[in-house]
Design goal:
With 380 residues, the chain is of the alpha+beta class. Helices cover 34% and strands 26% of the residues. The structure holds zinc ion. Zinc ion binds next to helix 3.
């Protein structure tokens, strides 16, 4: 199993970091995308005797699909995203990987080229040993923006279980939150600033909504907590209103974000907030314009059991089950009917000026994937 040895994995991770793959929506450089990395990954897989090809989701926005085995067993999917966030704020060279104190530094080292290196290495090892069923790889674009890669992948491919390798400090992530976005608009009555008798400030009306939502967040939502992902929450993230210092504001708009728990139903979440807003301001208009579901994997699912057993085999102790506050592509697989768990390396600095990943934990993640794939694709 040469591909699972640390020097090989370390070199692969260096190669992945050296190839910029900043999401084009998160940089001024509109030439930037995941294509160069996708081509490297495809060729690396092919050189390790794995069938792999590019699936272009949009022009210049590739997924890499790969597969191993075609047996009677189950189909397992490993998923990692190819894109990274931008490098504008970074205080270390983003694309010149350096190793210090067992840590690899560079943009994407942790989020998530460490997890990508683990997926590739485990796949290469499984290609030499073979799998009973089938292993497919979803190496997707655009996770850091709109997840067009994962959305496209689940339309084309099926699997019986999926393991995502976002960094999780080697915890087994069984759940994460979802979110909803809404735009709230309040009308006022435009008038000259001296005309208190006919003017009505939309901004003042919005004020009572803001107070009500803040109280709702702190007193109600934060008490509603999930053992894996923590409390529900919401916040007002953008505000816009008024047209001039001497004019009564004719309109005020805010955008709100609500982070949801796996146990919460979307329509109930929406109705609850609508009631709060309309109580504070009956003529407010609310437009729910985007949402992503939460993710939850039943611990009895074979994929969860396989990962737990693999963890025990590799690390000699029971894996800790956990949840993410953040949203990930796991929800897209789960929503497509593919039970999904996440396990990934230890690291720090996601979306931050200094980013690193613990190299040993990348090697351990690769070993866990290898063992999990064997038990999952062998099981009935
Ligand atoms: Zn990520």
């Amino acid at each position: 199993m040469v591909p699972l040895q640390k020097p090989q994995i370390e070199k692969l991770l260096c190669d992945l970091i050296r190839i910029p793959s900043v999401n084009p929506h998160l940089t001024e450089d509109k030439e930037s995308n995941e294509m160069n990395l996708a081509l490297f990954v495809r060729d690396w897989l092919i050189s390790h005797t794995i069938k792999a090809h590019i699936e272009e989701v949009e022009p210049g926005r590739p997924n890499v699909y790969a597969e191993i085995g075609d047996g009677d067993g189950k189909t397992l999917c490993f998923c990692a995203h190819l894109d990274t966030v931008g490098v504008q704020e970074m205080t270390i060279p983003p694309f010149e990987p350096t190793i210090e104190d067992k840590r690899m530094y560079g943009r994407g080292s942790c989020d998530m080229k460490g997890g990508l290196a683990a997926v590739l290495s485990a796949a290469a090892a499984l290609a030499t040993t073979g799998v009973k069923g089938k292993l497919i790889l979803a190496l997707v674009c655009d996770e850091e923006y709109a997840s067009i890669g994962a959305d496209d992948f689940v339309k084309r491919h099926r699997a019986d279980g999926c393991i995502l390798t976002e960094p999780s400090d080697l915890k087994i992530v069984m759940a994460h939150k979802g979110f909803l976005w809404a735009k709230v608009t309040v009308p006022g009555k435009s008038a000259h600033g001296s005309r208190w008798d006919i003017g009505e400030s939309a901004i003042s009306k919005m004020g009572s909504i803001l107070v009500a939502l803040d109280e709702f967040d702190k007193k109600v939502l934060r008490q509603r907590s999930d053992s894996l992902v923590g409390p529900a929450s919401m916040h007002v993230s953008l505000i816009n209103g008024g047209s001039g210092i001497s004019t009564y504001a004719s309109s005020c708009t805010v955008h709100i974000e609500r982070r949801t728990l796996p146990s919460e139903e979307r329509h109930e979440v929406q109705e609850e907030i609508e009631r709060k807003i309309h109580k504070a301001c009956p003529d407010a208009e609310i437009e729910w314009y985007f949402h992503r579901p939460s993710m939850y994997c039943d611990p009895e699912e074979p994929i969860a059991k396989s990962v737990k057993t693999a963890f025990q085999e590799v690390l000699g102790r029971e894996g800790e089950c956990s949840g993410f506050g953040v949203w990930t592509d796991a929800a897209i697989f789960q929503q497509a009917g593919i039970p999904t768990v996440n396990i990934g390396p230890i690291g720090f600095g996601l979306h931050e000026p200094v980013e690193w990943v613990d190299i040993d934990s990348v090697v351990q993640t690769a070993s866990i994937l290898f063992h999990a794939a064997n038990s999952f694709t062998n099981s009935s």
